[in-house]
Amino acid sequence: MKQTEEQILQDITRLFSDLEVSTYGRERANGRSIRPDVSSFYYCAKRIYDTIEELVDVYHPDYITASDYNYILDSKRTLLLELEVFKDRNKLEGDYLTYELEKYLMKMQGLFECFLSYCKNK
User: Which of 53, 52, 25, 55 is nearest to 40 (CA)?
Assistant: First the structure.
């Protein structure tokens, strides 16, 4: 069963929230915390790209131009490769890991700004 465009946009919003948790971590109600995690960040980033491809293939939204979409596809190859290498050689912890993941988070937020602003305005 296909998802509606609204559901896909909600997934994208949720995945970006998960990216932030993977970058900064989060305190849980039981006193424990979720720490920054490269593998989780990689998985969320990959899911965002796949979800965007599905959205564009099925619904052809007018709020993204063809050149923006081509740029997103180009960045998918480079950014996911960088994250794959970073994930495999990851020995970082704590604040330094957050600092490194934050760079990728900012790239992703800038790249998908048209989707995020559309989701907020909807």
Answer: 25
* Lookup result for tokens 């950014």: 79
Asked whether 26 and 33 are in contact (CB, 8 A), the reply is: yes
Cβ atoms of residues 45 and 80 within 8 Å: yes
pTM: 0.88
- pLDDT tens string 28-40: 777 677 788 888 9
Burial group, residue 80, by CB count within 10 angstroms (0-12, 13-18, 19+): middle
CA distance 101 to 48: 16
Q: Is the dihedral of CA 84, 25, 29, 13 positive or negative?
A: negative
Q: Report residue 113 CA to chain centroid gap.
A: 11
Cβ-Cβ contacts under 8 Å for 10 (sequence gap 6 or more): 119
